[in-house]
Amino acid sequence: MMDRSRLMCFSLVFWLVGLSPLVAQIDRVTGRAFATRSEIFAANGMVATSQPLATQIGLDILKSGGSAVDAAIAANAALGLMEPTGCGIGGDLYALVWDNKAKKLHGLNASGRSPLGLSLSRLKQELATLKRDDIPPYGMLPISVPGAVSGWQALHERFGRLPLAQVLAPAADYAEKGFPVSELIAHYWGLSVPRLRDQPGAFAATFTIDGEAPRKGQIFRNPDLAKTYRLIGAQGAQVFYQGVLAEQMDAFFRENGGWLRKLDFEKHRADWVEPVSVNYRGYRVYELPPNGQGIAALQMLQILKAYDLKAMGRGSAELLHLMIETKKLVFEDRAKYYSDMAFNDIPVAALISEAYAAERRQLIDPKRAARRIEAGRPALNQGDTIYLTTADRDGNMVSLIQSNYRGMGSGVVVPGLGFVFQDRGQLFALADGHFNVYAPGKRPFHTIIPAFVTKDDKPWLSFGVMGGPMQPQGHVQILVNLIDFGLNLQEAGDAARWQHMGSSEPTGTVMGNGGWVELESAIPWETVRALRRLGHRVQYGNGGFGGYQAIGVDQDSGVYTGASESRKDGQAAGY
User: Fold this and answer.
1) Is 498 in contact with 523 (CB distance < 8 Å)?
2) Which residues of the chain register pLDDT less than 50?
3) Cβ contact 550:462 at 8 Å
4) Would you give the distance in Å from CA 426 to the centre of its chain?
5) Strands 571-574 and 271-273
6) Which residues are tagged catalytic?
7) Are 472 and 547 members of one domain?
8) Residue 189 domain boundaries
9) pLDDT for residue 377
10) Quick one: CA torsion of 510, 515, 520, 521, rounded to 10 degrees?
11) How far apart are CA 386 and CA 543, in angstroms?
12) Residue 371: per-residue pLDDT
């Protein structure tokens, strides 16, 4: 008979072995235990955002007869209040809009430009005073004109159905009456307050409660933002760029050593642009052209489509090595070429061409991680963040991304307005001759990118993955999960991710050590060990793997499918 101590030990081991799968994962009828929830299905409309209250606001707008654009603006306004750690009207906006009546995809670049009165030489003088050789992440120097409101106006004028005041009313009401802060947003809010509370203006007065960041579940109010939203709803974007709000911002920057002036706001415009695309295994993937980094995803897909990724196996070292090496190649081009197309002759068509992909593909060593890669030479032609997506009952869809850049941006808040200004200008380079070198009235390189996919010229997927340089890497991982490995919309986002860090940057920083790879903990140890043998420097990351939202559409029935990022606070919902 087994003695008592041995029996207890055996029982404990058995209990732990039996319990560990329940701790690590849950069982699902699909057999894919990594998925956190089912996809969402709806026939009349769908909204997916990173905050459930914002999703519900967008859904209410759809039910009230609003278009997908109305819902997107309403949800974006709500996120500017409820997730100021990632977005707000002090930042920029990009969007892709599927117009189902015209059967056409439209692109919008509503990013702002640098101050007209600040030259490169004067900027360098300011930096020398601060004893810096780069543009700081906070304060006055990284601020460029906020483009988000101009983006709302351009979208609404072309595709809106409801009055703008009605579209912005729900977010204004929540700003006035308050809302409970969600968990992950509260975490990032708490990290931002100590860094930004001492910047010029009213950051602490606007974004803290008794001097501290709001806790999860705590009611937060922003009555100043409510007033700003109602002004914009009543008078449109002109009040922000030509009217009383522009005058208030001008006066504040003059008084506090900033560089934006009313003239900068008056000269700002959002631009409708033609999306660019590649064919990936029968699916046409669309991104916006630079100054954003969307074409990085297209370059990666062009290289990868020559390989049988499915045969390599999802999560295998062979697959991850190939994708990481592909990312390295593309990001060197990103560092050199991606910038404001009004200032440079950027070879967009050549960069995303099959011929250039074939040339670059030859540089990938299947047996060894590259330490140093140079940007290519394509033939020249004579080219933090929130993501949300919406779809309406008429088949129109919106893929929209909006950001302050670093979390809560520059930390600069004009008293009485309720929002923080972005610090996107930190991404300018300072070296003469660089494509992305600072210049007055120039758009900086941008990380935020919405995406859209069609199949047989019909809408198939509207999606995005927020998160700085993770975004194009995330776009590719989602599409490979969906197209090569057959995961459903929610599973494709829940599957474990990787990101390569340490490529050369559009700021002019050059990396030559191969960088490192961050992996989520669900990637098998066998894969980690094999990657290390191939020469990759591998570490586990906690967060920073992006924030995914998606709406798919069944091309036969027209039924929408929704998915929301399990790593965030968000929700996909429809009716």
Assistant:
1) yes
2) 1-2, 4-24, 379-383
3) yes
4) 17
5) unpaired
6) 385
7) yes
8) 50-86+100-272+407-427
9) 58
10) -150
11) 15
12) 81
